[in-house]
């Protein structure tokens, strides 16, 4: 596969696949804790993110857009390129939902607006290195796709040290390489409660401040049993 330069060298825990079906099918382990389906983005997703930020307005806020809210944006965008980018995201949502049993997944399109440069705040948990695992279900995992703005960061387990300021979180060891998910690619990552023998992927959302580019990403949580209403978004 091409476009794998975003994967850290000597990373046996990350495997590249060639399709969305290939992303969802394999099991994690014994060392693999992430599968990646690489894609190149061709539309103006950064412009789309800026337009969405103007529509949503408040700074430093994470907005989880449901399907109807995504559709409603179609009449509010100033350019054909932004419309094409939005259509691309909607098709991704449809494709993910079609591949899952009703009630076994929850999809969110997330718009992350930058914080004001003078705002003093404690970092949200998502902006600290962490392992996902909010549910007690024995099989729960996340799928992410970054479209615009700074993508998700990740580090190797060997480089993750306990965060002295926040229990349950991590900091990168001095001199450690911090890698990033590639824009447009689907990442399926293991969480801390799938299987004790599989280490979860340690990652974080980047901290962004004005005038940095707003972020747009898609997240899907899936389980081996029904946890949400059918086709929850």
Layout: helices, strands, pairs:
Elements: E1 14-16, H1 20-24, E2 34-37, H2 45-56, E3 62-65, H3 67-72, H4 80-98, E4 105-112, E5 140-148, E6 153-155, E7 160-162, E8 170-172, E9 179-180, E10 186-189, E11 202-204, E12 215-223
Parallel strand pairs: 1-2
Antiparallel strand pairs: 2-10, 3-4, 4-12, 5-10, 5-12, 6-9, 6-11, 7-8
Question: Care to describe what's here?
Answer:
With 233 residues, this protein is α+β, with helices and mostly antiparallel strands. It has a single domain (14-223), classed as Jelly Rolls. Helices cover 18% and strands 24% of the residues. It has helices at 20-24, 45-56, 67-72, 80-98, and strands at 14-16, 34-37, 62-65, 105-112, 140-148, 153-155, 160-162, 170-172, 179-180, 186-189, 202-204, 215-223. The strands form three sheets. The protein has a seven-stranded mixed beta sheet. A three-stranded antiparallel beta sheet has the order 9-6-11, with no helix packed on it. A two-stranded antiparallel sheet has the order 7-8. β1, α1 (20-24) and β2 form a beta-alpha-beta unit. α2 (45-56) packs across α4. It is globular, with a radius of gyration of 17 Å. It starts with 13 loop residues before the first strand and ends in a 10-residue tail after the last strand. Residues 1-5 have low confidence and may be disordered.
